[in-house]
Amino acid sequence: MKKIMKPQMTAIFANCFLAAACLAQEVNLDQFPSTEIGNDQIQMRIYLPDVENGLYRATRFDWSGVIGSLQYKGHEYFGYWKDTHDPEVHEDLTGPVEGYIKPGLGYEEAKPGEEFIRIGVGIIEKANEPEYQMFKTYPILDHGNWEVDQGEDWITFVHSISGEFGYSYVYEKTITLEPDGFKIGHKLSNTGQKTIETDQFNHNFFMIDGEVSGPAFTINFPYAISTRDNLKDMMSITGNELRFNKEFRDTSLFMTLTGYSDQVSDHEVTVVNHNSGAGVTLSMDQPVYRMCFWACETTLCPENFIWISVAPGEELEWNTDYYLFVKQD
Prior knowledge:
The protein is mainly beta. The chain is built from no helices and 23 strands. The strands form four sheets. Strands 1-10-11-12-13-23-20-19-15-17-16 form an eleven-stranded antiparallel β-sheet, with no helix packed on it. It is globular.
């Protein structure tokens, strides 16, 4: 076991080409703290949570497990999908990244200027606003405590928060490489006095071999999918398959998908780049709470959600598996 860092802790659908240009810097991701794990088939780069220097310091997404690169049998599955970068912009990071759509623990009860918690981020100051703004970066009053350990083919992040308003937790995430993929394991321990209830999701941000989002890709589910959203003739649905009708250029599309049941077996998505043959199947050991899809020119994102409820003194564990493959012509 190798402890790699314990940083000092103080203190959707936007179009992918609409960045905060006035604040953003030139993209140079090598400047941000990262580490690598690997096995015989996979090499993975992971960016590290760091209050002062981290790649991501905004409040929308969980800071742990940000995968910048995954190379498997000569194919790349992730990367940086924007042409600008600001660590405090809500979407300026690489996938898969996880987060929580609900405002946060204690947001509804808090008054402007008081505290609430974003899991995997810290204790946040509530603004004077009619409702929570997902794409806003809020002041972080207390980053909590991060510890990160790693071995040759695994890495574990532990984030602990002790709030003074009934919510406290220890959140553990472990990425483990396997011969043909990887697993993201989670454990959330409720160390506070109030029940933790929230949705949790993964944005994924697939960038398979740098292919432009378009007809090269198919996205498959284990059930017949449908949506009430307008696909604008950009994509089409046939049975359990989602296809691109054209390449995405300077555009994006979001949809909420339906058709899944409460069976855990429905929590599966397969993405294939038919030009390169590289594909991935992700699955979870929890029922689908919500399923969405978003894509722009550079990335495509099946966004899968689960529901979390953890009583005081209890803990919940859940896992996501990514199976990687290369189709042969």
